[in-house]
Amino acid sequence: MFNLERWQEIFETLSKNKLRTFLTGLSVASGIFILVVLLGFSKGIENGVKSQFEQDATNLITVWTGVTTKGYKGLNPGRYIQMKNDNFEMISKKYEDNIEYETALYAIWGAEVAYKNETGNYRVRGAMPDHQFIENAEIESGRFVNQSDLNENRKVAVIGRKLKQDLFKDEDPIDKNISIFGMNFKVIGVFIDPGGEREEQQAYIPLTTSQKVFNAGDNIRNMLFTVKMSDNFDDAVALSQNMANAVETELKQMHTVSPDDTSAVRVFNTLEEAKKIYSLIGMIQSVFWFVGIGTIIAGIVGVGNIMLIIVKERTKEIGIRKALGALPMSIVGMIIQEAVFVTMFSGLFGLIFGLGLLELVGPQIESDFIKYPQVDFNIAITTVFLLVFAGALAGFIPAYRAAKIKPIVALRDE
Amino acid sequence: MIQIKDLHKSYHMGSNSLHVLKGINFDVKQGELVSIMGSSGSGKSTLLNILGMLDEADEGQYILDNVPIKNLNEKIAAKYRNQFLGFIFQSFNLINYKSALDNVSMPLYYKGVKRKERTEKAMHYLEKVGLADWSHHLPSELSGGQKQRVAIARALASDPKVLLADEPTGALDTKTSYEVMELIQGINDDGKTILVVTHEPDIAQMTKRIVNLKDGLIIDDSPVQQVRASLHV
Ligand SMILES: Nc1ncnc2c1ncn2[C@@H]1O[C@H](COP(=O)(O)OP(=O)(O)O)[C@@H](O)[C@H]1O
Ligand SMILES: [Mg+2]
């Protein structure tokens, strides 16, 4: 392998048979190139979808209500089911052990919010302190709503970055008063949300305050819980699915809703959805892998074929070399070494080319569903070596056969 | 140098078998220049290939330079081919993508000679066949006579004990043939043992001994008055 003379002989052969070398190299390089690009995009899709999920907590259970569609126990369909504070408290107490964060919400859409001469319509949500964590929101300045704000029904507001930009421009909003439907609220904080501008065009106020100022009594619109995660993803999914089911059953009982009414009480289990999406990602990835492996197999077959042709084409040369005193093994070694060198070189070339393309084109095509297309370098390198090995093997069999035939038979080959 | 006794060789094609050599006996001494003659299909090439260890006899004894050639493994066969034998073929059998110089160095490469020495030696033999100026040309850029000269230089490169030439002039015109024979005679004058297969009587006349083959047997084996090729060039 490390015989300099042998390498010189091989470089000479390769450089004097450029077309042959080029074709072998091309089939390997393009195989690796396609694989790298495919795997890169598969990873990009995974990253993109995952980041979509990470906008909110992934272990979230959301509860909201609607109108009954089925009669039940003498009650007519068409009733609006209204959740109350004590529904939330009951569930909060009962599932205390499973719950990580919790909030009840009372929101108004399109509330008129103003600061000085600037006015706009924004969502205003009455929320509890945990809501910050459920939204994965970060405080840019000031603070979020806290428990004493709720206890004292304080008229305070935490505004999103976009809302702040709209109304305050460059001014510092903290401790300034904004008006919501003409009522004064003191700004206590600015938040940013990974969900982007849409989520940052709103204001949070204490739940109790919102119930009071919007005359909602003890009505609530939504309840959000996050479930404590266990290390095992499937366990976590099962746990949160159990809890979601139990909450749904319980609420339906409390409000006398038919168990098979799907619109009156709705419980959405993000983790369950996440699991579906992840398995979808998994499927996309397996498709990409499948195509990738197909490409590699095609590459291997291609290399094998080329090696077969090369050896066939060189039968006479092998005869000549044997007549001049070449050992059969030195001929096999020569052909394999050539194959290994060409596949290795072009494999690495395809790898670098593919990585370069991802690096260059990746940022351009970045969107909600594709982010940071990249390739696990180890996988890519392993594939190159796999192809090199395949090339060696594909070269070995015909080379061995050719080296075994009697020189006189090889010499007669035309 | 060469002793063969009762050599037999058959070719098998499916159920048919063709008995080509039916008991050949002859000896060649150091420094001889022997031609093997016979009509086409008489078994000349078969005999030469066995002598050159490119093929094996079915039966009989072959001793080359006091070494019995029998059931050799590939490794030893390769070594003997490299060190004892030099081949010259009718169709030259040069490697087409290698220059004249690289073709001539090839046996030295397999002998394990280092690159520098290889190039020097190869150049020396190319000079000897009068092709020093053509050393970097590919075979496709050479005439038939030049190709055969390169092949002769290659056969000489590893300084073998015996040169085996199978119709070395078969693909050449008369004038070129004589030039090649002149070269072969010169090499023989230096003491090299040479066997030439030919079916051309004028070529055979330029050797020192003619062995006549017919139907797989030697029917005549006699020395001749050598005609110097230089007289015809
Ligand atoms: N590999 C082979 N398989 C079968 N028959 C062969 C083979 N080589 C030669 N022959 C046959 O053996 C006979 C002798 O061939 P050869 O030694 O080449 O004759 P020459 O060189 O005298 O013309 C011919 O009839 C030829 O057809
Ligand atoms: Mg012949």
Question: How does the SSE layout of this entry go?
Answer:
The complex is a heterodimer of chains A (414) and B (233).
Chain A: H1 4-16, H2 18-53, E1 60-65, E2 83-84, H3 85-94, E3 99-115, E4 118-127, H4 131-134, E5 138-142, H5 147-151, E6 156-160, H6 161-168, E7 177-180, E8 183-192, H7 197-200, E9 202-206, H8 207-213, E10 219-220, E11 222-227, H9 233-254, E12 265-269, H10 270-313, H11 315-323, H12 328-361, H13 377-404, H14 407-412
Helix pairs in contact in A: 2-10, 2-12, 2-13, 10-13, 12-13
Chain B: E1 2-13, E2 16-28, E3 33-37, H1 44-51, E4 59-64, E5 67-68, H2 74-84, E6 85-88, H3 100-111, H4 115-128, H5 144-157, E7 162-166, H6 174-189, E8 193-197, H7 201-204, E9 209-214, E10 217-223
Parallel strand pairs in B: 3-8, 3-9, 6-7, 7-8
Antiparallel strand pairs in B: 1-2, 1-4, 4-5, 9-10
Helix pairs in contact in B: 3-4, 3-5, 4-5, 5-6
Bound molecules: adenosine-5'-diphosphate and magnesium ion.
Adenosine-5'-diphosphate binds at residues 11, 13, 18, 20, 38, 40-46 of chain B.
Could you explain the architecture of this structure?
The complex is a heterodimer of chains A (414) and B (233). Chain A is elongated and about 105 Å long. Chain A folds into 2 domains: 4-52 and 277-412, no CATH class; 60-269, no CATH class. Chain A is 56% helix and 19% strand. In chain A, helix 12 (328-361) packs antiparallel against helix 13. In chain A, a hairpin with a 2-residue loop joins strand 7 and strand 8. By secondary structure, chain A is α+β, with helices and mostly antiparallel strands. Chain B has 233 residues and is an alpha/beta fold. Chain B has a single domain, classed as Rossmann fold (3-Layer(aba) Sandwich), CATH 3.40.50. In chain B, 34% of the residues lie in helices and 28% in strands. Chain B has 7 helices and 10 strands. Chain B has helices at 44-51, 74-84, 100-111, 115-128, 144-157, 174-189, 201-204; strands at residues 2-13, 16-28, 33-37, 59-64, 67-68, 85-88, 162-166, 193-197, 209-214, 217-223. In chain B, the strands form 2 sheets. A 6-stranded mixed sheet of chain B has the order 6-7-8-3-9-10, sandwiched between helices. In chain B, strands 2-1-4-5 form a 4-stranded antiparallel sheet, covered by helices on one side. Chain B is globular, with a radius of gyration of 17 Å. The mean pLDDT of chain B is 92. Chains A and B meet through helix 1, helix 11 and helix 14 of A and helix 2 and helix 3 of B. Adenosine-5'-diphosphate binds next to strand 1, strand 2 and helix 1 of chain B. Adenosine-5'-diphosphate (ADP) is lined by residues 11, 13, 18, 20, 38, 40-46 of chain B.
